[in-house]
Amino acid sequence: MDKLWAPWRIKYVSQKKSPGCLFCKIHKQKKDKKNHIILRSLHSFVVLNRFPYNNGHLLIAPYRHTADFEKLKQEEVLDIYNVMIKIKKMVKKILQPDGFNLGFNIGETAGAGIADHLHLHLVPRWRGDTNFMPVLSETKIISQSLNDLYNKFKKESK
Asked: Which domains does the chain have, with CATH numbers?
């Protein structure tokens, strides 16, 4: 396998993993720019995925810490849905994707990187975005920095 030079990842791979839930920590910190939180609503928030599948990969999470859909109140479910519609419109305007993948990975076995806090993935897709790079070289290209993308979303949300 070829190697891809990615010096920005050293901070992540070398940092000591702290205990606790990432989503709970970042929403309580109120450091939205640092944490790339794009939008906050009454019951949920939207954050850029730091290790995205595609450019513009967003996560929508409830404030309340739960891994179980059945434990969400009706107003929390409705809030997540309404936030998803709002952020999807913003992504369409800013990035102009050809389509979207939307989904929840429930449990570690299903692929949830943060299995103990429910979150919805919104992944913009473009024709040809799955090309030879991931197939032949196990390399995915993300064409825009998180800070640049964050600034575009914040500008649009005003």
From this structure: 18-157 (3.30.428.10)
